[in-house]
């Protein structure tokens, strides 16, 4: 539907472009809401005991759609009667709306189909406006259901998430520029061009993204190993919460959309700060302290046992070590490429600064993910659930900076250990490639009887033929330089002999029996 979204004719001119972008934003919001509503209605129909009718299912779908954007929901139908907040966002569920608004902004900036090219600022404003307008209507509709929305959370982080995704789409459609805007002073552009700002900024972004990816992958690995270790407890909690297949399917879907959250929690555990299981309990590699407010859920069965940590728990520190080495590796790939000379590589200060900035980016990204992966699940002991974002970000920054910067300098020294050897290797490779690509030299065909000749004072060329035994040589003068025959490479004779007999001028003209009559001239005797 996004590929074949409604388009406006080109004849309406530039004034139709903002309306087209606005429609794209509204369509993206409608697609995300519709997909989630279909899923919720399917689960409601398959439920053996549906409650509140189809209206209640639609209100639940609206609340879940707002929760996917980071809004905090308020549950009113609690057992105690007091409203309970729900702010833990399933990160996999949040991927769909973020991707839809990103794609809408990216495609709206395209000037295909003969339409005039829209401006980046106008596209961002219109796509965000169309999406947020649908969000406001959904918020108004969800007020009458059992899951209302906290008003402050609609501005932050919900609106910020939408505008951030739209800005990312506009930036992607513009070619991902890493440079100051065009209205910046020319002196700033010249200075950044001299310092190769774009190249260093790309290295920082790549190393930071790689460090965050390694932390998430390591956290997911820790969770998977812990689930296998506590497989029996996870199975018991799954069976306890879902009796038959009608309840097992929603529980399985809920566990799947919470897998990215579990990966972030595992990364926070490996970094050291760990995560909270209520207001009075914290889980770290060193110890599992306090009394946890631990609800029954299959993913929570991976939590280690209470008490001080063991060597197996301390082994989780390998995850941030791998992230620090990754930041260093992606930095050195740009700072000192393979087979690069010392004059082509970055200096020690530039390499260390790039690795340090990559560590900062890794810390910021990890803190943002930690803030999105946690949240309250109720009141009282469940008011804090998940990692503390600022502690997790600070730990990620410390690990990657303390490991990434020195490892980057060591890798740089290792790559440049041969001095100019890399430059010599590259020069030899270039010469070899040039030799292979150059056309072969045109060589004249030579006769098997012809030997290298040297010019003399008379301007005559000489050729020699070796005898059968190599004991005597026959030398014969050949008349001055003439054209070379293509068949044998023998100079053409100056006399009037035919071309066919010219290659055989060296043969004797006398009878063969006269040459073999004398015993001394006869060939070697053969002993019968």
Question: How would you characterize this protein structure?
Answer:
By secondary structure, the chain is an alpha+beta fold. 54% of the residues lie in helices and 7% in strands. It contains 16 helices and ten strands. It has helices at 16-46, 53-68, 91-108, 120-142, 151-173, 186-194, 197-229, 231-241, 245-257, 259-271, 311-314, 318-335, 348-373, 389-415, 421-437, 512-515; strands at 73-75, 84-86, 147-149, 275-277, 281-283, 287-290, 307-308, 385-386, 461-466, 473-478. Strands 7-6-5-4-8 form a five-stranded antiparallel beta sheet. Strand 4 (275-277) and strand 5 (281-283) form a beta hairpin. Helix 7 (197-229) packs across helix 10 and helix 12 packs across helix 14. The chain starts with 15 loop residues before the first helix and ends in a 13-residue tail after the last helix. Residues 440-507 and 512-528 have low confidence and may be disordered.
